[in-house]
Design brief:
The protein is mainly β and 583 residues long. 3% of the residues lie in helices and 44% in strands. Strand 35 and strand 36 form a beta hairpin.
Length: 583
């Protein structure tokens, strides 16, 4: 046998090489997990003659590294044996192994082929906690991992609470219904929720519960949670979906008739607010907001009432935003059939109201400009979790000039205009009615009460005294998911009296000036209407009086906390509202 030696390096064999005193070039080597390369040189004729060495391996950058992205992990409920069922999916690039490991808190709990993605499987996890750090790693590929912290509550199943889901056919709007079928009569009143929203309570002994208006978009999973109200440790979770109801359809859109009541009006703003910021398929037609039927492809989303989002894209540019409100204003009042008024709920004395608040004396002077707050709710009837409101105010056009009538929506507890709040209104002079809608646009509900708008106008010049009324009517209060809440309306009577002196409406166009604003302490009030008789500093709710001044046009608010306030300024028989900021 020829004399020489061989070399083992990190398990790779090189050689044989002759003993000629020359250095040998070996390799290439893959990246070493340990950071070192171990060498063993062995004589080919005498294996007991060897030498060993170790060298630090250079760190080479892989030009095409293994990568995991878009990791999605969801709990699909718990099994009677205490195991949890998980949904796992992710994208991968440049893998050298067709297997992946699932690790929980650093320990491998399963290995699966990549072809099983998306994976649904049962896993035995610790029973004493709900939050787990779950990782997926490409098998035998160090560092090719992605990790998420996932909350996986495992509720105690009720042995007699066995339920199946029976899906019903899709409707024309792309929505479907499903029945919960209980194998045994329900053990107690069950609170039923889907995707976090409580639907209803099912009486004990029932065997079926219907869920309507589910979105068949082919993407949404539906998680139904059942809770026995007599034994709150008895819970069960059922997951189904996603369900794909249909392909996209082409149907006509009447630009502005968002809620399909045959008319473009203030009620349509409520749907626009719910979908605000959504994007979809543009109509790609010139002047696509013209009042005519315009063919449009369905968008993937639908409203709570199964109306497709495409109807809220009034101007047809593929995005729901302020431009659609402008297009709605352009078509406001137009119709293409009999008007179908949106449904409202009957209200009781316990429900909140929307009203026009008149001055304390219940009087306004003729030939003068007025500002009257519109109040939603009260300190003993706080509005809970609302998103929008639509209503009308009826007035006598013989006493209040329709041409001068306008609505201002200030910053209030409902939100900030053009930031997270939008509004629309239209005056109908012949009917003596003004239609108004206010909605949030950020998909966040709010709670509170107080001023939501100000009604501004001019009392027509009269001879003598007259009595008139302002009446809120046709009011709808809604939540983000479209749920309608009961809301009372109210009729407010007041007297129109002779102005104490000759004051022309054009003299009052500037109204009242408050300066400086913002201020640290001193406020000055200037008005061509006369001397200030009473000033009330009010909180943003428009109801709580913080401070009162009489017969003075100079106010010192040095003792107030920094923030925003309303001033209720009375000048003779006239009342003005101004907003001030205390720095």
């Amino acid at each position: 046998m020829q004399k020489g030696y061989i070399i083992y390096a990190n398990g790779m064999l090189f050689g044989p090489f002759p003993y000629n005193g020359e250095a040998q070039k070996i390799g290439p080597f893959p990246n070493s997990p340990s950071g070192y390369i171990e060498f063993l040189a062995v004589d080919v004729t005498n294996p007991t003659c060897f030498a060993a060495a170790k060298a630090e391996a250079p760190k080479c950058v892989d030009p095409n590294p293994c990568k995991i992205s878009n990791l999605a992990i969801r709990g699909l409920g718990c099994n009677p044996d205490g195991s949890r069922r998980l949904y796992i999916n992710f994208k991968y690039e440049n893998v050298l192994n067709r297997l992946f490991d699932v690790l929980v808190d650093g320990k491998i709990i399963g290995t699966f082929p990549l072809i099983r993605l998306p994976l649904e499987a049962n896993f035995k996890l610790a029973q004493d906690k709900d939050v787990f750090k779950i990782s997926v790693c490409i098998n035998d590929s160090k560092g090719c991992c992605e990790t998420q912290e996932v909350k996986l509550p495992c509720e105690r199943p009720c042995p007699d609470l066995i339920v199946d889901v029976k899906q019903k056919p899709c409707n024309a709007g792309g929505a479907f219904s499903a029945d919960l079928i209980f194998k045994n009569p329900t053990p107690g009143p069950l609170r039923i929720a889907i995707n976090g929203k409580i639907l209803d309570t099912l009486e004990a002994g029932k065997n079926i519960f219907a869920i309507n208006g589910l979105l068949g978009d082919g993407v949404t999973f539906f998680k139904v949670e059942l809770l026995n109200l007599r034994d709150t440790s008895c819970k069960r979770t059922v997951t189904f979906g996603p369900v794909k109801c249909r392909n996209m359809r082409i149907t006509d859109v009447w630009p502005g008739d968002v809620n399909l009541d045959n008319t473009a009006n203030h009620f349509d703003l409520l749907h626009i607010g719910q979908a605000f910021g959504s994007k979809g398929i543009a109509r790609f037609q010139p002047n696509s907001w013209d009042w005519k039927p315009t063919p449009a492809l369905d968008w993937p989303e639908i409203f709570f009432d199964a109306i497709n989002y495409k109807h809220a894209d009034v101007n047809g540019d593929g995005e729901i935003n302020r431009l659609d409100i402008e297009a709605l204003s352009f078509n406001f009042g137009l119709s293409h059939g009999p008007f179908t008024r949106p449904k409202s709920l009957p209200a009781t004395d316990l429900d909140p109201k929307i009203l026009v608040e008149m001055p304390a004396k219940g009087e306004l002077a003729d030939s003068t400009r007025f500002e009257i707050p519109i109040i939603l709710g009260a300190n003993n009837q706080v509005i809970k979790d609302i998103y929008g409101v639509a209503f009308s105010v009826k007035f006598d056009p013989k006493l209040i000039d329709p041409k001068a009538l306008t609505i201002e929506v200030p910053t209030s507890w409902m939100g900030q205009p053009q930031v997270n709040l939008e509004s629309i209104f239209k005056v109908y002079p012949n009917e003596g009615r003004i239609d108004i809608a206010i909605t949030r646009t950020d998909q966040n509900e709010v709670s509170g009460y107080g001023v939501v708008a100000k009604m501004k106008g001019i009392i027509i010049d009269l001879v003598g005294r007259a009595e008139t009324k302002l009446k809120t009517d046709d009011a709808i209060l809604n939540r983000l998911d479209g749920e309608i809440l009961p809301l009372n309306t109210e009729e407010t009577a007041f007297n129109i009296v002779d102005a104490p002196r000759a004051v022309r409406p054009e003299d009052l166009l500037s109204g009242v000036t408050v300066y400086p604003n913002p201020t640290n302490s001193q406020l000055n009030i200037a008005s061509v209407a006369g001397s200030v008789t009473d000033v009330k500093v009010m909180a943003l709710d428009g109801k709580t009086v913080v401070k009162t001044f009489r017969n003075s046009n100079q106010l010192n608010i040095d003792d107030l906390r920094p923030g925003m306030y309303f001033l209720r300024i009375q000048i003779g028989q006239q009342v003005f509202f101004e907003r001030v900021v205390k720095q």
